[in-house]
Amino acid sequence: xxxxxxxxxxxxxxxxxxxxxxxxxxxxxxxxxxxxxxxxxxxxxxxxxxxxxxxxxxxxxxxxxxxxxxxxxxxxxxxxxxxxxxxxxxxxxxxxxxxxxxxxxxxxxxxxxxxxxxxxxxxxxxxxxxxxxxxxxxxxxxxxxxxxxxxxxxxxxxxxxxxxxxxxxxxxxxxxxxxxxxxxxxxxxxxxxxxxxxxxxxxxxxxxxxxxxxxxxxxxxxxxxxxxxxxxxxxxxxxxxxxxxxxxxxxxxxxxxxxxxxxxxxxxxxxxxxxxxxxxxxxxxxxxxxxxxxxxxxxxxxxxxxxxxxxxxxxxxxxxxxxxxxxxxxxxxxxxxxxxxxxxxxxxxxxxxxxxxxxxxxxxxxxxxxxxxxxxxxxxxxxxxxxxxxxxxxxxxxxxxxxxxxxxxxxxxxxxxxxxxxxxxxxxxxx
Length: 431
Ligand SMILES: Cc1cc2nc3c(=O)[nH]c(=O)nc-3n(C[C@H](O)[C@H](O)[C@H](O)COP(=O)(O)OP(=O)(O)OC[C@H]3O[C@@H](n4cnc5c(N)ncnc54)[C@H](O)[C@@H]3O)c2cc1C
Fold this sequence. Notes:
Radius of gyration: 21 Å
Strand content: 15-25%
Number of strands: 18
CATH topology of the domain at 1-118 and 177-248 and 342-398: FAD/NAD(P)-binding domain
CATH class of the domain at 1-118 and 177-248 and 342-398: Alpha Beta
CATH superfamily of the domain at 1-118 and 177-248 and 342-398: FAD/NAD(P)-binding domain
CATH architecture of the domain at 1-118 and 177-248 and 342-398: 3-Layer(bba) Sandwich
Shape: globular
Bound molecules: flavin-adenine dinucleotide
Number of helices: 12
Distance between the termini: 44 Å
């Protein structure tokens, strides 16, 4: 097993150059993850080509190039809380932005011919507990509050799709998809360059200075003078002494890819769906085109070594597919950092005239970064005022390590409550 991700091992190398010398543009974007790339392409698609993107490493270096690859609706904040905070009408509109983000990805993959193993096979939410009542309520809520139809999968049906005794019923989000996220990032960067938008790599922005008529961004070897700036640094934001850097909590989650399994894979997953489950600390997994299984899960502040990572993920795999866990070899294992705000929602905000932020998508950001990145492009070009929908999500500080410890404690608490619920339902089933 090596510490390169499956995505890095199977995507072409990025060929971006670092920023050198003095430059000027209308909009400068900090961060080459899905959020920054979506803002940039949204601007180009609206006719604004005077854009520069600056990435500290290579595009997709952050969560966007390391994630599970699930393209589905929703935010890190749960739907219940979204409804409670905004009321039915606005909550539905906000949720719809994430579905539009998923649809935008589908369209861009086709339109720009981005080769990224995009598979519109649907996503299964598998019930870990045998709690049909809660699952039915979820299905009903998605239908009535968000106009989304998640198909019911009875236990027998689900077990014929996934060969695991671990699950009970499930819900299928049929219009969801999964893909190779790093290839998608690189594809977006390629499209931007084709439209003459410079995408600089190895170009960490060290300082953003307000000046007359805009901002001056400094990297190690150059500067960009821009009228407007969008900060989209996710959980990898660093080196910037701004309020947003103090408001982001970087939390790790872990992924591994097995060796190719050939026909054996189909004995466990009898289709192309991506799968997660109903626990707070859920597993997420999906088949890869070359018959590997991509397996992810857990949330923690720890950055373990490869052996520990493999041990954790194998233990999780054994709970779902015990036979497979005992025989399979992991070829890659890695982690990525999710950028959380305390309120679990992204921040879409102008903190000073012309200084915007699209950041804090947490563990549910593939489709939302597209939707909200595009919204940001519309704000910058057409004065779209829907960013006000997010005005309650400010940038409360997370107090560094103390915040990380609090997040870890919350996760452990949630794990315990998952465990207690599992015990309760086991007792109930055996009664
Ligand atoms: C392992 C993992 C699995 C996940 N699985 C899923 C999933 O299956 N589905 C889903 O919806 N979501 C998933 N997520 C969440 C999702 O990946 C993120 O929410 C999303 O990618 C965030 O995108 P972003 O552009 O905001 O941040 P990032 O992708 O982290 O990008 C930020 C970029 O900004 C750059 N940067 C930071 N500071 C600077 C600076 N000063 N100068 C220049 N550049 C800078 C970084 O290098 C980085 O490349 C997962 C996350 C992880 C970590």
